[in-house]
Amino acid sequence: FCFLDSLNGEVKPRILLMGLRRSGKSSIQKVVFHKMSPNETLFLESTNKICREDVSSSSFVSFQIWDFPGQIDFFDPTFDYEMIFRGTGALIFVIDSQDDYVEALSRLHLTVTRAYKVNPDINFEVFIHKVDGLSDDHKIEKQRDIHKRANDDLADAGLEQIHLSFYLTSIYDHSIFEAFSKVVQKLIPQLPTLENLLNIFISNSGIEKAFLFDVVSKIYIATDSSPVDMQTYELCCDMIDVVIDISCIYGLANSEAGLPYDKESMAIIHLNNTTVMYLKEVTKFLAMVCFLRKESFERKGLIDYNFHCFKKAIQEVFDVRIKVQQNRKLLSQRRWSKLTVTNGVLNNPH
Ligand SMILES: Nc1nc2c(ncn2[C@@H]2O[C@H](COP(=O)(O)OP(=O)(O)OP(=O)(O)O)[C@@H](O)[C@H]2O)c(=O)[nH]1
């Protein structure tokens, strides 16, 4: 599901964002990656072309979003869906839960079956979106109904093996960030290693919970294996906002452009329930946010030392990834030159 970016040799998982018109695709993208406030999305214009947004420059999660206009025609010869699906890691299909979803479900079925034929490795993720207007009972009811109908359609077509994952989302709370985090985590091959490192780190430092966050999008790319509760996650998002906002206003010298986040970035917040939140820079794009009790924070020296080891280990994990990519590139170049020589072509393309 990854494709090689020819410019920098990076392997980038690609995410497609699809769904009917006005289901909320552009809003999701703007809120998650561009810090747009949810109310501003009311004024978004309808999208008329396929936009290919690369969020790699400012974010660790270097994936792409293909925002399709509502109705795409699979039979349109100018639309090369095979090429698009072949390089896709995850397909997010957005369903507007406040609207009648019969048409959305048939569109979902068509899209999923087409995509699966081209690339059976795609993760299919269904966002039951705009649930902010629904009561809790109503949400569960909708999810059950959509889940059942979508899977029945697949079963009728003899395609039970296709797995759909469902998420209840809204741009008016943190559910959209949570859902995106889960989607992205499935595409990170180093996830088990990251989780392991976090487990070792927290158990040796007296920390209760630790998240590794992509600072720009507030997607958490990994956490230790204890369960995540929504409130903790929301507090982490708020903390990142506070740190970035304060840095933007007071941290940057006037002439300085660029990210309000660097090697020195760190913050400590004492909550009134004897919990301490601790944020520290891990890499250019990643931050660790930890939750711990006040008593444990007295051993800050130990925590900082363990953090130093953790940071080094993370660096090694990503170094290995870069090396593997470079080797792969070299290998394919060699193969290519051998091929051209055996074909009697003398000029090496490189
Ligand atoms: N209540 C609510 N409204 C939302 C939510 N997400 C998006 N919207 C609204 O839905 C409307 C349509 O959103 P868009 O993002 O333009 O939808 P789109 O899918 O990109 O539409 P096209 O570009 O036409 O394909 C906007 O008025 C948004 O404010 C949500 O989570 N809750």
From TrEMBL:
Any one of the GO BP annotations: cellular response to amino acid stimulus
Keywords tagged on the record: Cytoplasm, GTP-binding, Hydrolase, Lysosome, Membrane, Nucleotide-binding, Nucleus
Keyword Cytoplasm carried by entry: yes
Nucleus keyword on record: yes
Signal sequence segment: none
Subcellular location: Cytoplasm; Lysosome; Lysosome membrane; Nucleus
GO molecular function: GDP binding; GTP binding; GTPase activity; GTPase binding; molecular adaptor activity; protein heterodimerization activity
InterPro entries in alphabetical order: Gtr1_RagA (IPR006762), P-loop_NTPase (IPR027417), RagC/D (IPR039400)
Similarity annotation: Belongs to the GTR/RAG GTP-binding protein family.
Protein name per UniProt: Ras-related GTP-binding protein
Record organism: Lates calcarifer (Barramundi)
The gene coding this protein: rragd
